[in-house]
Amino acid sequence: MDGALWMYALLALTTAPPLVPNAALIASAGALAERGELSLPLVLLVIAGSALAGDAAIYGIGRMASGRAVHWLSRTTRRKAALAWTGDRMHTHGLPFVVGVRFLPSGRLIGGLTAAIVRYGSGRYLLGAGIAETVWASYSVALGYWGGSALDGMWGALVIGTAVSLVVAAVAQVLSRSGPQGPRTALGPGARDAQGAEPPAAA
Predict the structure, then answer these.
(1) Mind telling me which InterPro entries this protein's record contains (predicted)?
(2) CB 25 within 8 A of CB 11
(3) For the residues 74-93, what does the mean pLDDT come to?
(4) Both ends of the chain: CA-CA distance in Å?
(5) 128: closest CA among 152, 105, 107?
(6) pLDDT in tens, 113-171
(7) pTM for this model (two decimals)
(8) Where are the domains positioned within the chain?
(9) How far apart, in whole angstroms, are the C-alpha atoms of residue 31 and residue 141?
(10) CA distance 80 to 172
């Protein structure tokens, strides 16, 4: 029981912050759930809930320190382009884009900060983030659950989970390379809320 509690705690601590590689740990949790050593519903709840809490924290930090967030995201041409591209599409496509941006490289961090900077409504942002994290947690845990069963052990889940995560990240990286070349949006602390507001004009 103590070991299970430590596993749940470790899942939460490594999932809440962005940019922490824990695909192997999540695969392990899925494999342990398949063997009955962990509760599958609780594993999913801890992973998705922790990720959503992290997204909310990123959004909140962006709202409280939007000037610093803009400065950090504008320090390099690549980040500045990603900020403009993300903000423009967030206002144009709304909730579907909020869901989709989570699966791009660094999407949790850039998506959450951009949503805060352009004053995208917190309720809509958290709804989209919640959908994205539920989908992500489901397939990430399933890889370990079914992989561990197929290869008869946790090491099989570790291999499959890590390999698939690398493939997904690589594909997302390729697809996102042309993204920041799209229309730029004037972003800043004074940007209007996305709920009921006109999309910002492209620069």
Answers:
(1) DedA_domain
(2) yes
(3) 80
(4) 57
(5) 107
(6) 889 888 899 999 999 999 999 999 998 898 888 875 555 555 555 555 556 556 655 55
(7) 0.70
(8) 11-181
(9) 8
(10) 19
